[in-house]
Specification:
It is built from 26 helices and 25 strands. By secondary structure, the chain is an alpha+beta fold. The strands form 5 sheets. The protein has a 6-stranded mixed barrel. The protein is globular, with a radius of gyration of 33 Å.
Length: 860
């Protein structure tokens, strides 16, 4: 044979013809593999296209609407808001006239922006749900500052006229001339819609509802008084924006600053890009999961295809092909699949981006319109992911095939002994021990990041141990099938045990997706249980009054709480207010809670305390954890800086243990008034007087709240449900994104079965020849699929359950004190996976049952 070495054509036309012929002959078998890669690429590129499109549209939009603003005057005291963008102190209206008097200033105009609520006259919110907020702004017709343009009607004028954005008016079915209720900081006001407006050329501001009034009315509704949110400035012709900004800064007091219009635009666009970055990362996590699951499918598919071509490759080696040519042949085939998958995935990604925009719109997040943006970097990523993952996953089986000697390859069969490999067992056990150690370490040290590393190590251990686990697991899972279905169930179990590496790789694709589904399910259930136990244990009141706004800094004006407290059936009405600012010693924004702590301590459990709950306006209560972190003791002075108040000094009057109840620094209601000019009651806990009817008191409170948009009164059980409902919404969204990875894994089961049936054609023919009917063939294939699906599901759920338990333990200091394994949901997932296994086997089972017996028996 040595004398023929080197005679096999190198990379000649004949070699390429051989590759093309091979691809064409296996086109149907490579279709599912290419589809799996394309779906992973689609999720990745769809995310990039969506975020690039949003970023470009917003950049162009803000370039357009800030074109006439050369400078912006704002407060210089910036404080971080844990619930959203940072905020600044208000700007006195008197500065507007002083700025306008400068020689370099053409015009200056105050601007108001404040979070508001609006309802129709039936009390239904114009912008329902937990999406973007409703914003109160003043409408300007100054061409330099007119961010809103009239679409219909006239501009607002006077205390009872309002303009709405086109989208809000359309969705709420509100027309010009209709009346609406508007509430910001002052009492609700009935106003008449006199016009509809667009934000630049868009019908709304990224999904937020807009309530537009004249400047004076906006100041009244927001309780801004004689202040502005900011002052917009345009320069006289010939004066640069930097020059006019310098002129303004020279005359401003120290608590205020001016920045150029360009700088303000860049800040705004940077904030948007930062938000998009978090959103992009969130979606790309699921894209990576889909790609990894797809990689398992590719590896398995090429392993089977190469195994089926062993004699073909051996013949090539026998007539002179070298190892590099065998390896190159498979790599080129994989590259072709990858290129086609990248192209298809890129096209699907553009469609998926449009679909995700529709999904966000359904969640209340309207994005500005504009064509999808496909950048060069997105195209590069599509091909790197598509081609790179495909070649990478195919190289291992290709190298394994290239190392086989020609004589060995020409033999009819090979034996899979991976299920008995001692090296695999030792390495897998070491990785499992290391992963378990990281999980325990992270749980004990309250370090979620360590738990994450442990989870990754456990998944790698599952990949290594897969073939060792596959045989005993398939024997156990397949036992009921063998007993219930007789010969078909027994054969299905034996088939799943025959090739442990193939069974393990197919199941592991499902393990990746299901482990995350299990983790999310258990984590969500545990979070809901923690929230429920916390509320039931610590909120002793009979009723809870809340505003509908999701933002904790929103809420009811204090007058409502005062009226509720005076109702004859009310024993106690204890309000809670939320604000934010900067607390000495604490990084980032800090939450400050305003409450009548002496009254509140009768309704909630503060745990062990030291000091007094009867706080004065100059005292503050801090959690024991915060006191320990900052070495605070009773009587120490701490400084809290709010957006409008500047630095305010308090003395520590109380240290309480139970931070789950009040997650922040607590001051009295009068102390809260020192740091904000617009206090609001986020929540009011109500205790009903002895002998009074809870239902009657609830009705009376609802009567008090009758004119407030969206306020709710709930008993304890309903309040718990309202708090945990948001968790369910988030879980459902995660399930939608994870569904793609699970679908790819099921596609892998179907592909593996289809390829293995092709490999077992003669075997199936012999079974038919000795009496097995078509329905038995179909049943055998279906049960084999079910065994693999249940194997992957059970292993994935077990990993997800263990990791979720460790994660909950690592988060116990953040109030996640309960662990709920969600047994019912996990059982449902297992049953659904078994059913999905049946569906995945339909086409392969049908194909196997339709084989011609004589042709199958005579096949090689």
């Amino acid at each position: 044979m040595a004398r023929y070495a080197g005679r096999f054509p190198s990379w000649s036309a004949a070699m390429w013809k051989l590759i093309r012929a091979g691809l064409w002959s296996r086109k149907l078998r490579l279709f599912t593999t290419a589809l799996a890669v394309a779906l992973g690429v689609a999720f990745t590129t769809g995310t990039l296209v969506l975020t690039d499109t949003i970023g470009k549209v917003f950049d162009e939009l803000f370039d357009q609407i800030t074109e006439g603003t050369d400078s912006l005057v704002r407060g210089a005291n910036e404080v971080q808001n844990p619930f959203g963008p940072s905020e600044r102190n208000r700007v006195p209206a008197e500065l507007e006239k002083q700025v306008a008097a400068l020689d370099s200033v053409k015009s200056a105009e105050g601007f108001i922006q404040f979070q508001a609520q609006a309802t129709d006259m039936k009390g239904d919110a114009l912008k329902p749900g937990f999406g973007p907020p409703t914003l109160l702004q003043n409408f300007s017709d100054n061409p330099n500052f007119a961010t809103w343009k009239l679409n219909k009607g006239k501009k607002p004028s006077g205390p009872t006229e309002v303009v709405l954005d086109v989208t809000t008016a359309t969705e709420a079915k509100v027309s010009i001339g209709d009346e609406v209720q508007v509430f910001a900081a002052a009492a609700p006001r009935t106003m008449t819609v006199v016009g509809l407006a667009t934000f630049g050329n868009e019908n709304n501001l990224a999904g937020a509802a807009a309530v537009l009034t004249d400047l004076k009315t906006a100041q009244e509704l927001s309780d801004y008084g004689d202040n502005f949110f900011s002052i917009q400035v345009s320069a006289v012709d010939g004066v640069s924006e930097q020059q006019v900004t310098n002129d303004i800064n020279r005359m401003l007091p120290k608590d205020y600053e001016a920045i150029t219009g360009t700088a303000f635009n860049e800040e705004t666009q940077s904030a948007i890009r930062q938000g998009l970055g978090f959103f992009q990362t969130f979606l790309l996590v699921f894209a990576v999961v889909a790609v990894v699951v797809g990689a398992f499918l590719i590896y398995n598919s090429f392993s089977i295809l190469i195994a089926q071509r062993t004699q073909e490759l051996g013949l090539m080696r026998a007539i002179g092909a070298v190892r590099s040519q065998v390896l190159g042949t498979v790599a080129i085939e994989a590259a072709v699949v990858g290129v086609i998958s990248a192209l298809v995935g890129l096209g699907l990604g553009v469609l998926l981006a449009s679909g995700m925009r529709s999904l966000l719109a359904g969640l209340g997040i309207e994005l500005p319109s504009g064509p999808n943006v496909v950048t060069v970097s997105t195209i590069v990523v599509a091909f790197v992911v598509g081609v790179g993952v495909t070649i990478g996953a195919a190289l291992l089986p290709a190298r394994r095939a290239a190392r086989v000697s020609p004589m060995e390859a020409l033999r009819s069969a090979s034996h899979d002994d991976s299920g008995s490999s001692k090296v695999r067992l030792i390495v897998g056990l070491v990785l499992t021990a290391a992963g378990a150690a990281l999980l325990v370490w992270g749980a004990v040290a309250t370090a979620p990041l360590l738990v994450g590393f442990g989870a990754g190590t456990i998944l790698v251990a599952a990949v290594v141990l897969g073939p060792r686990i596959a045989v005993p697991a398939a024997r156990l899972i397949g036992a009921p099938a063998a007993r219930l279905r007789g010969i078909t169930g027994s054969l299905a179990r034996q088939n799943s045990m025959r090739n442990p590496a193939r069974t393990a790789t197919t199941a592991l694709a499902l393990v990746m997706g299901v482990s995350i589904v299990g983790f999310v399910t258990v984590l969500g259930a545990s979070t809901k249980t923690s929230v429920t136990k916390t509320v039931e244990k610590q909120v002793i009141g009979d009723l809870v009054v809340t505003a509908s706004q999701f933002d904790p800094t929103g809420g009811l004006p204090p007058s409502y709480g005062e009226q509720i407290a005076k109702l004859p059936g009310v024993k106690l009405a204890s309000p809670i207010r939320f604000g934010f600012g900067q607390l000495d010693g604490e990084s980032g924004g800090s939450i400050v809670i305003g409450a009548d702590l002496a009254a509140l301590s009768k309704a909630v459990d503060l745990g062990t305390t030291s000091g007094t709950t009867d706080l004065s306006a100059d005292q503050v209560a801090v959690s024991a954890a915060a006191a320990k972190r900052n070495s605070w003791k009773l009587g120490d002075t701490v400084t809290f800086t709010g957006p409008d108040s500047g630095p305010q000094k308090y003395t520590v009057g109380l240290i309480f243990e139970n931070a789950d109840t009040l997650a922040g620094t607590v001051v009295s209601l009068k102390g809260f008034d020192r740091i904000t000019e617009t206090p609001k009651d986020f929540q009011i806990t109500v205790q009903v007087a002895d002998g009074a009817s809870v239902g009657k008191v609830k009705s009376e409170i609802e009567g008090v709240l009758g004119d407030f948009p969206g306020a709710e009164v709930n008993d304890l059980s309903a309040f718990v449900k309202s708090q945990t409902a948001q968790i369910d919404i988030f879980l459902n969204m995660l399930y939608v994104f994870l569904a793609l990875a699970v679908f790819i894994a099921l596609l892998g089961i179907a592909n593996t079965l289809a390829l293995s049936i092709f490999e077992r054609t003669r075997e199936v023919g012999l079974l038919r020849a000795v009496g097995m009917v078509r329905s038995q063939v179909r049943s055998m294939i279906r049960w084999e699929s079910v065994i693999i699906a249940v194997l992957g599901t059970v292993l994935g759920l077990l990993i997800g359950l263990v990791v979720a338990g460790a994660m909950m333990a690592s988060l116990r200091d953040q109030g996640f004190s309960a662990f709920d394994p969600a047994p019912v949901r996990l059982q449902v997932i297992t049953v659904l996976s078994a059913m999905a296994g049946v569906l995945a086997a339909l086409r392969p089972a049908r194909r196997a049952a339709k084989m011609d017996v004589l042709e199958a028996v005579s096949s090689e």
